[in-house]
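WARN no homologs supplied; continuing
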Amino acid sequence: MDAIILQILNGLDKGSAYALIALGLTLIFGTLGVVNFAHGAIFMLGAFCAVTLSKIFSISYQTVDETQTDFLGNPLKVDTPYVEYWFGPEMGAALIDWSVPLAILFSIPVMIAVGVIMERGLIKHFYRRPHADQILVTFGLAIVLQEVIKYYFGANPIPTPAPDMFRGSYDFSPLLGFDPNSVIYPVWRLIYFAFSALIIGAVFAFLQFTTFGMVVRAGMADRETVGLLGINIDKRFTIMFGIAAAVAGLAGVMYAPINAPNYHMGMDFLVLSFVVVVVGGMGSLPGAVAAGFLLGILESFASTTWATTTIPGINQIIIYLVAIIILLTRPRGLMGKKGVMEE
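OK structure emitted
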């Protein structure tokens, strides 16, 4: 039972990333009808927002510390971060330690700007083009973005640690009635799941309970009618593209301590996230979230020793097998609507 609980936790962890990226993909497809293959690159850019802020906080200058000497007796030169000089040693050290959570505030305007520029500068010219053209141009954009990141940050992963107080593990055993240390899980991964649930809830609440969200949902259902009412739906859809980029960016920021950011991490998640969107149903926001967590849990159980020993390589193909089965039995996906991409 403790092993099952651990696998469920692992699945929720993976599913959180899948669900957030798939949610942004579905927002873009549902509003603009664009198949955005650059969305994985946006996830990567979010992770590198965390890397960038961490590097900015770590910029330092050298001073001579008379209290420390080398083996020749000469005073040592030590690196002192500018934030410690400006805000004091304690505050400066805290800013460096909390660089990943603070990157949330840093990344939101950056990712919204990236999304709006991407939509206005490129995507809008492909609204009426075939989906194959959209896939090609956005996939090309994703390659360009990852090569830019590779040029400036290098090809190697860049460790970006979580704050010290969240680097340990939490023992669930006493809460569940098991022996001590039988169900232990990293604290930051639990925070990532809680953060993902918060973002997903915020997006759904925004669409459901705000006037802006209601207009957007109406535009997703019947764009022409909303336009005839005198509402500039194109402007609102551009804003939604920026919000979708921010969602993917936030997923990347918080994922940075789990998997050290590298230039190809967006591609690693892109294909899986599209499978999630298709399984959930193209254009269905609840379907994207449900499929993300479902496939994350299935992938986690398929990665167990028992599963990989019984069926070698099952952990690599389980998501695609489930997608094939669902699409054969329900071509529109779990919660897909009639008419979406059926023309």
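The chain has 15 helices and four strands.
OK
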